[in-house]
Amino acid sequence: MNASIRYGPTPPDLKVGKPPKATYGVRVAQTFIPVRARVDGAWRLGVVREWIRSRSGWLVRIETVDATSAVGVCSEWYEFRPDAVDRLNIAAASGEVRLAPPQAAGRDL
Predict the structure, then answer these.
(1) 87 domain-assigned
(2) Taking the model in full, what pTM does it have?
(3) Are 4 and 86 in contact (CB under 8 A)?
(4) Which of 35, 52, 79, 91 could form a disulfide with 17 if both were Cys (CB 3.0 to 4.6 A apart)?
(5) Are strands 97-99 and 42-54 parallel, antiparallel or unpaired?
């Protein structure tokens, strides 16, 4: 699937954000939200691990699978763009991954 379920045609990629410093932002929450994120020209499955409110907006830390990494995971901070991230639902019984419908409130994720 090449389009965001919320925004139609392929959205721009997430931009790598500055890693937060103690004085840079306010930690909002540590989470575990399965997502599909647009990174490096492709959709990748990942997990949102942390949200931070910074001076320039929201930063989000997303972990994705990385076969080239020694640990198999890449964890990177990105400037949050709601059109480049789609939330996923995982069916408890089957483990099937499904795109979730858009949410009306909050950080739009």
Answers:
(1) yes
(2) 0.72
(3) yes
(4) 79
(5) unpaired
Mean pLDDT of 41-63: 86
Residue indicated by tokens 């089957």 = 94
One-letter amino acid for residue 82 of the chain:
P
Domain housing 77: 15-99
The beta strands (E) that lie in 20-105 are given as: 25-39, 42-54, 57-65, 73-79, 85-90, 97-99
Chain-centre distance for alpha carbon 20: 16
In a domain, residue 109? The reply is no
Structurally, the chain folds into a number of domains equal to 1
H or E segment to which residue 7 belongs: none
CA 82 to chain CA centroid, Å, is 9
Which pLDDT belongs to residue 23?
A: 47
State the Cα–Cα distance between residues 77 and 69, nearest whole angstrom: 17
